[in-house]
């Protein structure tokens, strides 16, 4: 549960590589893919979505892949990976459920969604719902896994709830 106090917000946060973090808070991506299942205590929880600070070679390779670009280039988002926000809390989303990634599961996942993650058999697809994108991202110090964050969020009047796509 997120706790709001006079001095800020306590919330669980997960850091996600760009462009996947941006795609999630803008409702273009539904599943966050991980090699591990989320803790059951996080199911149903509104979590912070942070972008990682660093860029790794595998991010660049995925971003530049023609199959990924065939979908991404139509979204009107920055053309360069470096132009996305890195090291920021971009918004929040509710962790609704998760699935073991199997061949049968992948039959129901669109080609576009599959380009927006690493859908490796045996991994986990975390279904993220009701994303809220912050109009003004908040600088954040990330960490691996799910971590606690205490900070200031802009008022709700500064949050952008994009229309579902």
TrEMBL record:
It comes from the Bacteria. SUPFAM superfamilies: PUA domain-like (SSF88697). Gene3D superfamilies: Hypothetical protein (2.30.130.30). InterPro entries: PUA-like_sf (IPR015947). This is ASCH domain-containing protein. It comes from Ancylobacter rudongensis. The lineage of its organism: Bacteria, Pseudomonadati, Pseudomonadota, Alphaproteobacteria, Hyphomicrobiales.
């Amino acid at each position: 549960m997120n706790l709001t106090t006079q001095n800020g917000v306590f919330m669980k946060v997960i850091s996600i590589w760009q462009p996947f973090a941006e795609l999630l808070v803008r409702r273009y991506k539904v599943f966050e893919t991980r090699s591990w299942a989320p803790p059951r205590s996080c199911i149903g929880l509104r979590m912070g979505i942070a972008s990682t600070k660093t860029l790794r070679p595998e991010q660049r390779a995925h971003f530049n892949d023609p199959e990924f670009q065939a979908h991404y280039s139509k979204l009107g988002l920055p053309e360069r990976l470096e132009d996305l926000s890195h090291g920021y809390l971009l918004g929040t989303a509710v962790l609704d459920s998760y699935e073991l990634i199997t061949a049968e599961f992948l039959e129901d996942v669109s080609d576009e969604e599959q380009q927006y993650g690493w859908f490796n058999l045996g991994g986990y697809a975390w279904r993220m719902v009701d994303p809220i994108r912050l109009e003004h991202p908040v600088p954040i110090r990330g960490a691996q896994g799910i971590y606690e964050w205490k900070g200031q969020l802009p008022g709700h009047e500064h949050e952008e709830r994009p229309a579902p796509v």
